[in-house]
Write a structure and sequence with these properties.
74 residues; alpha+beta; 2 strands
Length: 74
């Protein structure tokens, strides 16, 4: 997020593990345009068409249902 934040008005990070989400929130606080959300990739808490761009890096091997996770991203 730190590397991408300068190129966008708002950036949202998603983390499933609550402890890692809290850690990531500390980084997010340093960025004025960032938010960290704690949720599962298969059940994203966003309405359709919320994002213009999604970067999913080393995610699918960690979700329970990779197809559902991809459907959520699309």
């Amino acid at each position: 997020m730190e590397h991408l934040a300068p190129f966008t008005r708002h950036i949202t990070g998603l983390e499933y593990d609550i402890e890692r989400s809290i850690e990531a929130s500390q980084i997010g606080k340093r960025l004025a345009n960032a938010a960290i959300v704690n949720a599962a990739g298969e059940y994203l808490p966003f309405p359709n068409n919320s994002f213009d761009f999604i970067l999913s890096h080393e995610v699918l091997e960690h979700v329970l249902d990779d197809r559902l996770s991809m459907e959520e991203m699309v």
